[in-house]
C-alpha cells in the first residue's frame, strides 16, 4: 500500500492540490541500472568526444583531459544537478551530494527486477500513472524499460528507416521495395503496441523537407545505393566523396520522411519530433530551429492524412515560435521534457505556452534516461512550477478554480491521453 503523501503547500492553487493530480510522462527513454556518479562521468566523456578532433594525429591527451575536465565542471554546477540532489535529499533524509544519491540508488542495483520495483516506488510517490518510452530497439518491438508492466507505452524511432544501410539490410533495390519495407515495419510496430513514431533528425540536419517528386526520389535513391560512403557523420549519417551524392542522400531522406509522416496519419499514430538545443554540444541551434517545421505543418498531403505532431523539448530556446505553432495548428502538440529538469527554464516555457496556446496542446515530460529519481524529480518540478504560474492566472488574470484545474489536468495527463489515444 502506498503511503499517504503529505500535502506540499507550494503545489496548492486556489484550494486545488496539484500534487494529487495524476501525471503521464509523455517522453522518456529506457532506464539502465547505474549510479549517478557513473552517469555524469560518462556524459563528460561523451560530450568531450563530440568536440574533439576525429583523427588521433589532431588531438592530444592534454587537450582531451582539459575538455573532459571542463565538461565535468559544467555538469557539476548545472542547475538540473543542484535541484536533483536536493530533491533526493528531501525524500530520503540524506545530504544533497552525489555520494549520498549513489547510496540511495545502490540499494536497488542487484537485478532488473529490483530496479523495476524501485522505479514503481518512484512513480507511486509522484502519482505518475504511466510513461511513454522511446524504444532503443532497431526492430519494431516493445522495449524492456525496467518499469512495471502496465505503466508504460512505447514509441518507435524512424531515423534508421531512411538510412541507406537499412535499405541494404532489407534487400531494397528500388524505391518501391524500400517504401514497402518501411510501411511493413511501421505496421508491425503498430501491431506490437507502438503509440507513436519518433524522429531525432534535428541531431544531424534541419527539420524542413524539400518538395521531392517520385521520379527525383528514385534517381536519388539509385545514386546513393550505387555509391560508397567515405566517412560517417553525426548520428551515423553516411558521407560520400562527391557533393552530388550527399545532395542525393538529402533528397531521398526528404521524400522518405514525408512518406513516413503521411503514413503515420493513416495509422493514427503521432510523429514525435526532437526540437531543442542545450547541454550536449552536438545539438545545434540551427538544426533544432522549429521555424523549419512550418512547411510540414502546412503540407497538404500531411494535413490530408490527419497526421498529429508532438514536438518534444518545447523547441527551446525558440519556445516562443513553437508556442505560436501550437496556437495555429490543431494537429501540433508540445511537451516540456528535458526542460522539466530546469525549473527556472520550465517556468519560462509554461508562461510562454499558456499565454498563447490552449492547455490541451501542452504535456508534461521528463526525458529521463538513466535513474528513476529523474522521472520523479521532473514531475515534482512540473507541479511546483505550474502551481506558481497558475497562481498568477488566478490573482492577476481573473481565472477561476475550475479554469486552473482544467489547465493542470490537461498538462499533466489529458493532453497525453488525447495524443496517444489512451482511455480515460
Kindly state the percentage of residues in helix.
40-55%
> What's the Cα radius of gyration?
22 Å
Strand order of the largest sheet: 3-4-5-6-9-10-11-12
Query: Could you tell me the mean pLDDT?
Result: 94
Query: Which structural class do you get from the secondary structure elements?
Result: alpha/beta
Termini Cα gap: 23 Å
Percent of residues in beta strands: 5-15%
Question: How many H/I helices?
Answer: 15
State the shape.
globular
Ranges where pLDDT stays below 50 over 5 or more residues in a row are 1-6
Order of helices and strands: EEEHHHHHEEHHEHEEHEHHEHEHEHH
Count all strands and give the number.
12
Q: Main beta sheet, described? A: 8 strands, parallel
Q: What does it look like?
A:
With 424 residues, this protein is of the alpha/beta class. Helices cover 49% and strands 11% of the residues. The protein has helices at 36-51, 61-76, 79-92, 98-105, 112-125, 164-169, 175-191, 214-225, 243-266, 294-298, 300-305, 319-328, 343-356, 372-397, 401-420; strands at residues 12-13, 16-17, 23-29, 128-134, 152-157, 197-199, 229-232, 238-240, 271-274, 309-312, 332-335, 362-363. It has an 8-stranded parallel beta sheet with strand order 3-4-5-6-9-10-11-12, sandwiched between helices. The two termini are 23 Å apart.
Amino acid at each position: 500500500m502506498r503511503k499517504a503523501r503529505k500535502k506540499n503547500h507550494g503545489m496548492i492553487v486556489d484550494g486545488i492540490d496539484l500534487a494529487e493530480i495524476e501525471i503521464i510522462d509523455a517522453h522518456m527513454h529506457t532506464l539502465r541500472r547505474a549510479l549517478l556518479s557513473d552517469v555524469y562521468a560518462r556524459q563528460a566523456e561523451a560530450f568531450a568526444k563530440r568536440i574533439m578532433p576525429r583523427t588521433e594525429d589532431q588531438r592530444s591527451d592534454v587537450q582531451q583531459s582539459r575538455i573532459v575536465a571542463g565538461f565535468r565542471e559544467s555538469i557539476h554546477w548545472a542547475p538540473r544537478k543542484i535541484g536533483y540532489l536536493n530533491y533526493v535529499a528531501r525524500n530520503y533524509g540524506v545530504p544533497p551530494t552525489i555520494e549520498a544519491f549513489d547510496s540511495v540508488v545502490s540499494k536497488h542495483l542487484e537485478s532488473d527486477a529490483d530496479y523495476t520495483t524501485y522505479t514503481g516506488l518512484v512513480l507511486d510517490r509522484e502519482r505518475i500513472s504511466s510513461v511513454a518510452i522511446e524504444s532503443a530497439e532497431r526492430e519494431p518491438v516493445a522495449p524492456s524499460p525496467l518499469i512495471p508492466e502496465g505503466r508504460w507505452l512505447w514509441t518507435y524511432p524512424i531515423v534508421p528507416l531512411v538510412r541507406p544501410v537499412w535499405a541494404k539490410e532489407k534487400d531494397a533495390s528500388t524505391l518501391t521495395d524500400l517504401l514497402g519495407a518501411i510501411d511493413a515495419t511501421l505496421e508491425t510496430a503498430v501491431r506490437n503496441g507502438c503509440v507513436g513514431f519518433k524522429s531525432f533528425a534535428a541531431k544531424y540536419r534541419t527539420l524542413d523537407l524539400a518538395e521531392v517528386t517520385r521520379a527525383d526520389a528514385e534517381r536519388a535513391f539509385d545514386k546513393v545505393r550505387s555509391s560508397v560512403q567515405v566517412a560517417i557523420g553525426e548520428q551515423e549519417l553516411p558521407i560520400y566523396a562527391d557533393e552530388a551524392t550527399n545532395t542525393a542522400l538529402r533528397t531521398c531522406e526528404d521524400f522518405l520522411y514525408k512518406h513516413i509522416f503521411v503514413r503515420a496519419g493513416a495509422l493514427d499514430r503521432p510523429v514525435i519530433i526532437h526540437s531543442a538545443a542545450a547541454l550536449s554540444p552536438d545539438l545545434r541551434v540551427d538544426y533544432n530551429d522549429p521555424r523549419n517545421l512550418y512547411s510540414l505543418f502546412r503540407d497538404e498531403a500531411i494535413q490530408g492524412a490527419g497526421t498529429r505532431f508532438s514536438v518534444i523539448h518545447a523547441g527551446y530556446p525558440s519556445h516562443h515560435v513553437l508556442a505560436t505553432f501550437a496556437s495555429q495548428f490543431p494537429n501540433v502538440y508540445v511537451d516540456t521534457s528535458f526542460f522539466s529538469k530546469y525549473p527556472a527554464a520550465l517556468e519560462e516555457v509554461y508562461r510562454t505556452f499558456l499565454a498563447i496556446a490552449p492547455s490541451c496542446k501542452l504535456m508534461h515530460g521528463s526525458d529521463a534516461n538513466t535513474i528513476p529519481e529523474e522521472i520523479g524529480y521532473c514531475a515534482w518540478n512540473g507541479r511546483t512550477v505550474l502551481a506558481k504560474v497558475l497562481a498568477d492566472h488566478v490573482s492577476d488574470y481573473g481565472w477561476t478554480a475550475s479554469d486552473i484545474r482544467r489547465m493542470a489536468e490537461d498538462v499533466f495527463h489529458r493532453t497525453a491521453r488525447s495524443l496517444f489515444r489512451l482511455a480515460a
